[in-house]
Amino acid sequence: MDGQLGTNGEKSHDNEYEVGDHCLVPRLLNRFVELHSVNSSSGVSETEAKTLLKICAIKAGGMISLAIDNCGTLWVWGNCPQQSKEGELALVSSFTPTPVRDFLGRSVVKVACGNEHIVALVSAGESYNGEDLVCYSWGYNTRGQLGLGDRENRLHPEVVKTFDEESPYEVACGAYHTALLTRIKKSSSDTLDSRCWTFGLGDNGQLGHGTTQSTLFPTPVKELPQNVSLICVDCGLFHTSVVSSDGDVWSWGMEKGLGLCPDASRAGTDSGDALSPRLMSWKPNQPKFPDPVKLACGAAHTVIIAQGGYRMWSWGRGRSGVLGDGKGVDCYTPTLVLWPQMMDDSEEEEVKSDGEQGKAREKETEATNEAEEKLSSALNELKLLKTKLSVIKNYASILHGSVFGKPFDEQDIPDSLQNSGSFDMGKEWEKMLETADHRKLIRLEMFYRDMLAGVKDELMKRRIKEIVKECLQSSEV
To answer: What InterPro entries does its record include (predicted)?
Structure first.
């Protein structure tokens, strides 16, 4: 609808897979087939440039799509920040990939985008040779998501000067916030420590600063441990997650850092946003994920690849089956994604040469995986039951307070219900009246008198409406 497919309204031969502005199957972007490299200073011919053009990285967010080619050129399409006819910044639909010409002569290495803003890590020189990167941001800045110290929008990329003395190497954007990873080189050793910086909207704790305040300048997430090597960061709409090389994963933001949008089923004591980093565990007493590779956030869920790429865990909002655990419910702890076990050629030869040991290991692995899945499922069900119990307790307390003038307590549960599991309403009512003092009886009388008066009033209103309706009908006749 906003051009984020980059097809420019072109019709394919398979019209059955196209519905209005939507395309139900992958389409080749002819724009990249036809284009040659925009870096004309390289001195190569147009034919050679067509052959050399290769997409090295892609990113998408909100209604924007982005790509980086092998020459370091950044391409954007979709609902992009552009200059309107009035000369001001506006989100203009671009239906074909367009290069960001502000970076011509330099290489864009990393890029991310939110709903209305873009952040890019760009080389200081013409090409990237592993040196420090410069952080640029542009687009809408109503929540401070550009990190430039104000709320003014930017039509063109502008340097985020906070990182002049640090080297950013990873960037991610939520709907209206931004997260970056930077390296600090210690003078006393060759160890490279990492820091996570966040800025922009903080209403749900997605900045991890312990508050719900928004931040206009990049600010480090101080509650993350020092002397760690952070390898990846990503953002959902309103939550942020990072992973270290040791396998620790921290999340913060909406609904305990899970990214879950609050709804009726999450009311009660178990709800609440995580304002500071929360360490995630893939099984009880085992927080570290083995050999982490990559972490990614959807709008309201998170997925991590670990164990060298052979296993995945997911957590967060599970609707539409996005967690890949065979269910469609929300998951509050990391759960294994149902993924076929794979092995490389050397492992396969070893299994063939020693069949019995291989089968034993397979059975042991399957048993472990099954036990982990059952345990994780049981923990999820237990948390769901606790949530439902909390909602029921709140309801019972409100109802009990309305009738008896005090909050519900366990000692108020009738003995017959505690002992036998059955409940005789009539007998318990008589027993309660006998044991009630004068003050309690007066309160009960007032409560039920008000209820009865309300019922009578409602019945009277309905009867009057019926009489009026009958009179109108008779007058028409």
So the answer is: RCC1-like_dom (IPR058923), RCC1/BLIP-II (IPR009091), Reg_chr_condens (IPR000408), Ub_ligase/GEF_domain (IPR051210)
Instruction: Provide the residue range defining the domain that includes 461.
Output: 397-474
* Burial (CB count within 10 angstroms: exposed 0-12, middle 13-18, buried 19+), residue 428: middle
Instruction: Report the alpha-carbon distance of residue 464 to residue 470 in Å, rounded.
Output: 10
Which is more confidently placed, 30 or 460?
A: 460
* Residues 178 and 298 both lie in one domain: yes
Q: Are 406 and 331 members of one domain?
A: no
**What is the C-alpha to C-alpha distance for residues 408 and 77, in angstroms, rounded to an integer?**
58
199-207 average pLDDT score: 95
With 50 as the cut, is the pLDDT of residue 342 above it? no
**Pick from 196, 181, 101, 180: nearest CA to 146:** 180
> Per-residue pLDDT tens for 407-418?
666 666 766 666
Nearest to 198 by CA among 237, 161, 144, 151: 144
Classify residue 383: in a domain, yes or no: no
Evaluate whether 352 touches 340 at the Cβ level (below 8 Å): no
What is the four-CA torsion angle of 220, 225, 228, 229, rounded to 10 degrees?
Answer: -40
Which residues does 362 contact at the CB level (< 8 Å), separation at least 6? none
Using the Cα atoms of residue 199, residue 202, residue 205 and residue 209 in order, give the sign of their dihedral: positive
Gap between the Cα atoms of 257 and 317, Å rounded: 11
Looking at residue 320, the DSSP 8-state letter turns out to be: G
Residues 272-319: tens digit of each pLDDT: 899 999 999 887 778 899 999 999 999 999 999 998 888 999 999 988
- Inform me whether the pLDDT recorded for 47 exceeds 80: no
Distance from C-alpha of 471 to C-alpha of 243, rounded to nearest angstrom: 74
Retrieve residue 313's tokens: 């865990």
CATH of residue 161's domain is 2.130.10.30
Give the whole-angstrom CA distance, residue 350 versus residue 362.
13
Domain count, the chain: 2
Total residue count of the chain as it appears in this document = 477
